[in-house]
Every structure is written in C-alpha cells, then in structure tokens.
Amino acid sequence: MEAAVASKFRSSRFIRGVCMILAGVMIIVIGLYFSVLSGVASISDKEFMETLFQFNASNEKHLIVWHLRIPRVLAALFVGAGFAVAGAIMQGVTQNPLADPGLLGVNAGAEFMLVLIFAFFPFMPFQAVIFFCFIGAGFGALLVYGIAYFAKGSMTPVKLALAGAVVGALLVGVSQAISILFQLNFEMAFWSAGGIAGAEWTQVKVIIPWILLGLMLGFFLSPYITLLNLGEEMATGLGQRTTLIKILAAVSVFLLAGASVSTVGGVGFVGLVVPHIVRFLIGTDYRWVIPCSAIIGAALVIWADIGAKLVNMPYETPLGTIISLLGVPFFLYLARRERRELY
C-alpha cells in the first residue's frame, strides 16, 4: 500500500515537473520572439526572419536585430537561468529560505570587483573580467558567512540576511566612492541598477560556457542537494560527503552569479523568488527544482526585460528595478511567513 502511494506521488511529481518545463519553454519561446520585436525601433516579423536567413549588413533593421536585440535576449535567457539556479542551490545547501546571491553578498562582491577593474584596469578583456568577478563573488560570500559565524549565538537565516545587508551596504558604499573618485558614474550606473541593454555578442559568447558549466554542475549535484536539504546529519548518515558537496555547490554558485553580474550587474531577487515558486509547485526534489528553476528564471528575466524596454521615463527602465517590484513584496511576505522558523 505504501509503495503504491509513493509510486503515485512520484508519478504526480514527474507530471508536474514535465508540465512546468514544457510551459516554461513555451513562455521562453514567446518571450524571445516578443523581445526581439519590441523596442524603440519597430521590427516586423519579416525583417526578423530576413535577419536570420538573409542577413544584409547594409540594412539598418537587420543590424539592430543581430547586434542589439539577439545578444540582449540571449543574455537575459542565460542570466535568468544562472541567478535562479544559484539561488536554488544556496537555499538547498544552507537550508535558508532567504538565501539569494543578491542578499548574501555574492552579487555585491562581484560588483565590487567590477568597479576595481573599471578603475584600475579599464582595458582588461572581458574574459579576464569574468574571472575576477568569480573571485569577488566568493569574497562577498565569505564576508557574509564570516560575520554571521562569529556573531553571538548560532548562525540563523536572519543573521545571514542581516550580515548580507551589512556587507552589501559596505561594498556598495565603497564601490560608489571609487566610482566618484575615478569618475566611473556613467560606466557603473546601469550595472548598479541591473541593466541588460548593453549586452553584446562579445559578452554573450564569453558568459555562455561559464553559465552552462555552472548549470551542469548544479544538475550533477541536484540529488545530493536533495539529501543535504533534509539535514546534514541525515546526509552524512547516508554516506554523503557533505563538505565536498558544499564546496562544489559554492563553485557552481560563484560561476553562475559571477558570470551573470559581469554582464547585467546587480539584479536581485531572481534567485530568491523562483526556487520558492518551483518548490511550491513540484516539491523539494532538487532533481526537478534545479532544471525547473533554470527554465522559470530564464522566462522571468526575459519578460522583465520586455517590460523594461516598454517603460521609458524618459530613459529605459533598468531590469533590476522591474524585478525588484516583484521581489521586495515577496521577500517581505516570505520573512513574515517564516518568522517563527528563522530565529
């Protein structure tokens, strides 16, 4: 009887997972189409198809589609997947419902390193910039966990969130001071707010392998994260090498967040909101949570970017602003719902 119930539950979860992936892919495809057509310059279906199959370098519309619209939407696709999976991994490994690259110092550390590069090494190639963003992401996370670890009492989710707020404010303040000192306000303005309008083929070609590597590592770790999410003692009792899993998970997060921040800057809340939505719909099996988070995260950022292009007051609204309008209320709701468990 119990075996039959368990089999039925697994079958139901499988159906829900497949439906979520298929629905997410459809939303992404529709979003890709509308994203390429939307913007200041009007692009028709015919011009879009001609760009793909009969590209004419002397046609201005073709140039807009190929050099501006397509790199931008591809960046949104991979960055959305990267931030969402990074958040899912962090929440699963730390068992912290508030874990998110933007809330626990990962994004702030990568942005801080980005400012240092703009100030002291402005001509550094983008391939090297990404590498240093990985280091900055790790630096920010270590600061947050170090402060929370040495604080009085146990390391609770609230302490991590508070430490993340402190470290984020510190790194942002230092970054702004460096920006003013070296007159980098223009270069950093869109990155600080989270912007994807400046994405180019050069950046997209560099970040895709890194994000794919981080995603594949996350997919590989997914069954182990499921066990770790049940409790470290239980995972250890089942023979899992928890320290190694945590190290590999951290590497995956740094790859995903570092590559994403180097391209679009501080886009927060994607890694917080998406995993909660996915777990609510399909449960806590990370073999489904991680791939579904990648799909839903990509869809969210693509459609948020469409909204950013449509809201011009008088300039295009940064992507981070659009997502924050969704993320901040969700964060407040989550903190209120989990208040008894967080302390």
Automatic annotation (TrEMBL):
Keywords: Cell membrane, Membrane, Transmembrane, Transmembrane helix, Transport. It comes from the Bacteria. It is found in: Cell membrane. Gene3D superfamilies: ABC transporter involved in vitamin B12 uptake, BtuC. InterPro entries: ABC_BtuC-like (IPR037294), ABC_transptr_permease_BtuC (IPR000522). It is a multi-pass membrane protein. The chain crosses the membrane at residues 14-36, 73-90, 102-121, 128-148, 160-186, 207-227, 247-274, 286-306, 318-335. PANTHER family: FERRIC ENTEROBACTIN TRANSPORT SYSTEM PERMEASE PROTEIN, IRON(3+)-HYDROXAMATE IMPORT SYSTEM PERMEASE PROTEIN FHUB. Belongs to the binding-protein-dependent transport system permease family. FecCD subfamily. This is Iron complex transport system permease protein.
